[in-house]
Amino acid sequence: MGRRMGTCDICSFATARETNLKRHKMVHTGERPFQCSSCDFSSNTAGALKKHFYIHTGEKPHKCCSCEYSCISASDLKRHSTIHTGKKPFICGFVGCDYSCRIADLLKKHSQTHTGERPFQCDTCDFSCINSGDLKRHSYTHTGERPYKCGSCDYSCASSTGLKTHSYTHTGEKPFKCGSCVYSGTTSGHLRKHSFSHTGKKPHQCGDCDYSCDSPADLKRHSFTHSGLKPFKCDSCDYSCSSTQSLKTHSYTHTGKKPHQCGCCEFSCSTSAHLKIHTYSHTGEKPFKCGSCDYAGTSASALKKHSYTHTGEKPHQCGSCDYSCTTAGGLKAHFSSIHTRDKPYHCSSCDYSCSSAGNLKSHYKTHKGEKLEPGQLL
User: Fold this and answer.
1) Most exposed of 30, 167, 173, 192 (fewest Cβ within 10 Å)?
2) Residue 243 lies in a domain
3) Mapped to the 3 state alphabet, what secondary structure does the chain carry?
4) Position 11 in a domain
5) pTM reported for the whole predicted model
6) Does 77 reside within a domain?
């Protein structure tokens, strides 16, 4: 005779083991009796507490036999091993979707992109999500908590995953390696996104236009171009934007911080993208090539701007007159010089001011004794 099944009084969960039922009921009661002695972490199982404690000790008892990777749990090691084998045993069952992954939880999370299910709801705002971990991390945006602290610097964050990824800035580790080139990254997400550069795949499709991209985060940011939402607001001015990264970059205009430093010269800047473009001045690379002529540039934006010389397109239109141009900067300079007569760019050596950064740069050459090229304005 089989063992008698125990059933949860609140949901349909059933198990033959009394300890499993007791542990499950804590999901409903919120009880977390296993408390960490070093921080405010608590859990509903002794195993989860033991795994958490390795964050404090730095111990990583489970080691990969194919590379230098080590981790704090057998399940993490099993998932890691699929990087070497290439196996993605969890396959989406929805017709027309070829998604597969290495982790059961990821498949469950992915399936909810088809069903639209978001069962976890924030009590403070209208945020909802597909798992309790995401909801807990979201709650920190209201409380300001950053419970995961780095032992090597003053960095802190809202998730253990974020802390682990941050630790690579100290160790230099990039454990996620591409099987098709020399690329390696600090997260599986970065590696997956990189893989699309080989396949050309852009699986995330906008429902309002023909835009597609290689990450759900990029698609979410894109959606704001339709909704007009700019949910991330600066505490020091009225600036708002559609991503946390843009807000962080903007904050440097107040602090003057330029965290990205060139390894070849004294140049520093506020974004990794600008630093990458700058490095091309040392290497001579121009990886963005025009399909209509032999033009090559150092950035996608430069290539897009160049493309207008072929199409004749002038997408930036003045709202006060019929002027149009190829760049947002050109439109801003037009509006300042013609409509508002603003001259926000000031010379630090004399009382000259102008409506564009380009004109100010040209003006500086008069102080240095440099000859201006034809077409450079003052």
Assistant:
1) 30
2) yes
3) CCCCCEECCCCCCEECCHHHHHHHHHHHHCCCCEECCCCCCEECCHHHHHHHHHHHHCCCCEECCCCCCEECCHHHHHHHHHHHHCCCCEECCCCCCCCEECCHHHHHHHHHHHHCCCCEECCCCCCEECCHHHHHHHHHHHHCCCCEECCCCCCEECCHHHHHHHHHHHHCCCCEECCCCCCEECCHHHHHHHHHHHHCCCCEECCCCCCEECCHHHHHHHHHHHHCCCCEECCCCCCEECCHHHHHHHHHHHHCCCCEECCCCCCEECCHHHHHHHHHHHHCCCCEECCCCCCEECCHHHHHHHHHHHHCCCCEECCCCCCEECCHHHHHHHHHHHHHCCCCEECCCCCCEECCHHHHHHHHHHHHCCCCCCCCCC
4) no
5) 0.39
6) no
- Residue in this structure with the two tokens 């236009």, named with its chain if needed: 209
- Asked if 267 and 337 sit in the same domain, the reply is no
Are 99 and 152 part of one and the same domain? yes
The one-digit pLDDT tens for each residue of the chain (378 residues) are: 455 577 888 888 888 888 888 888 888 888 888 888 888 888 888 888 888 888 888 888 889 888 888 888 888 888 888 888 878 888 988 888 888 888 887 888 888 888 888 888 888 888 888 878 888 888 888 888 888 889 888 888 888 888 888 888 888 888 888 888 888 888 888 888 888 888 888 888 888 888 888 888 888 888 888 888 888 888 888 888 888 888 888 888 888 888 888 888 999 888 888 888 899 889 988 888 999 999 998 888 888 889 988 999 888 898 889 999 888 888 888 887 888 887 878 888 898 888 777 788 888 888 876 554 444 444
Give me 206's structure tokens. 């906008």
CATH number, domain at 53?
3.30.160.60
Question: What is the span of the domain harbouring residue 330?
Answer: 316-368
Alpha-carbon distance of 30 to 105, in angstroms, equals 21
CB 81 within 8 Å of CB 66: yes
Q: Are residues 320 and 307 in the same domain?
A: no
